[in-house]
């Protein structure tokens, strides 16, 4: 199938399953402290960056800023530091934040099944766990130390969250670590297996691309914009019912081009420093951001393409 046919089919399926809507969400970085050594990540323990973990009060201030911008779906993000970003810390934040939000997800270190149950009871309804690469040899080459070095533990983590009853689970690969076709095929098979086993769980996928960061990691398998477009189309055709997220790692031109092709959710106005929305000078981010537009500007771009920006699409009323 040529690229034009791929794009047309992906657009048709996206319109059929999701309509002319793009949900907006924002990441809220809690901490850049991490006990892992990963070659590609700005938060890697070896990198000499200014580190910070937000207090609960600082998290609430950041959240107040984001909700004032219109966001009702937040994603709490941190490096892997189980002592500083513990289930107890997240439960306290979730308990205070959830009444003001439609959805609260986490992208932190994997937890045990019983810990996910506690987080669900506090108001967390989504978890994001990227495998980074399904090529085990490559995985071990870039994850040098820390709990994330355990390939199998990482691979099995989404199941622990699903067994606990998490409403939505995000999965994905870090594009640029390995040959993209192999990783994409493995991701599709993994999501299909999860959907078959946990049919009541909502799954989303994301394809974050490697970006410049502290440590100056050289991208081993770079992916062009045209190849990235093919990946999005292939995902939509292989997984027609699965939401596809697109981050501000990508350029405004590419993000606008992908509206309607397969993407169903986009972040906007993102900062990757803990406290970065209000006090960006106090810490350093995970990677460089390409789309620096404000949330209002991103929403306007979505409308200009004939789509509706959705700030809230779900609420737990039970």
Brief write-up:
By secondary structure, this protein is α/β, with parallel strands linked by helices.
Q: Name the poorly predicted regions.
A: none
For the largest beta-sheet, the strand count, sense and barrel status come to:
8 strands, parallel, barrel
Approximately how much beta-strand content do the residues carry? 15-25%
Mean of residue pLDDT? 95
- SSE series: HEEHEHEHEHEHEHEHEHEHE
Head-to-tail CA distance between termini:
46 Å
Overall geometry comes to globular
Query: In what order do the strands lie side by side in the largest sheet?
Result: 1-3-4-5-7-8-9-10
Explained architecture:
The longest helix is centred in the middle third of the chain and has 18 residues, at 180-197. The chain is an alpha/beta fold and 318 residues long. It has helices at residues 3-18, 56-68, 87-97, 113-122, 136-142, 151-164, 180-197, 225-238, 252-258, 295-304; strands at residues 21-31, 37-38, 73-78, 103-107, 126-128, 143-145, 168-172, 202-206, 243-246, 265-267, 308-310. An 8-stranded parallel barrel has the order 1-3-4-5-7-8-9-10, surrounded by 5 helices. It has a two-stranded antiparallel ribbon with strand order 2-6. The chain is globular. The model has no long low-confidence stretch (mean pLDDT 95).
């Amino acid at each position: 199938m040529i690229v034009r046919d791929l794009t047309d089919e992906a657009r048709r399926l996206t319109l059929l399953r999701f309509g002319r809507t793009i949900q907006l969400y924002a990441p809220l970085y809690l901490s850049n402290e991490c006990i892992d050594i990963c070659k590609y990540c700005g938060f890697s323990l070896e990198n000499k960056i200014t580190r910070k973990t937000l207090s609960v009060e600082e998290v609430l201030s950041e959240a107040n800023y984001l909700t004032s911008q219109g966001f009702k779906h937040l994603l709490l993000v941190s490096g892997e530091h189980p002592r500083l970003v513990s289930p107890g810390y997240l439960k306290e934040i979730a308990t205070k934040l959830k009444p003001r939000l439609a959805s609260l997800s986490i992208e932190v270190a994997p937890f045990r099944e019983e810990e996910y149950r506690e987080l669900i009871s506090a108001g967390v309804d989504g978890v994001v766990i990227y495998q980074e690469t399904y090529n085990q040899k490559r995985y071990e080459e870039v994850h040098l130390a820390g709990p994330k070095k355990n390939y199998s533990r990482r691979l099995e983590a989404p199941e622990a969250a699903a067994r606990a009853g998490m409403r939505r689970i995000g999965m994905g690969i870090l594009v640029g670590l390995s040959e993209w076709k192999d990783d994409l095929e493995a991701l599709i098979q993994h999501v299909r297996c999860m959907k078959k086993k946990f049919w009541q769980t909502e799954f989303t996928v994301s394809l974050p691309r490697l970006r410049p960061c502290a440590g100056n990691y050289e991208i081993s398998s770079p992916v062009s914009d045209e190849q990235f477009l093919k990946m999005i189309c292939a995902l939509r055709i292989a997984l027609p019912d699965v939401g596809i997220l697109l981050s501000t790692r990508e350029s405004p031109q590419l993000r606008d081009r992908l509206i309607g092709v397969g993407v169903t959710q986009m972040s906007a106005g993102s900062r990757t420093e803990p406290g970065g929305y209000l006090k960006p000078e106090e810490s350093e981010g995970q990677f460089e951001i390409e789309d620096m537009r404000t949330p209002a500007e991103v929403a306007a771009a979505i409308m200009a393409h004939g789509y509706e920006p959705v700030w809230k699409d779900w609420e737990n009323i039970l």
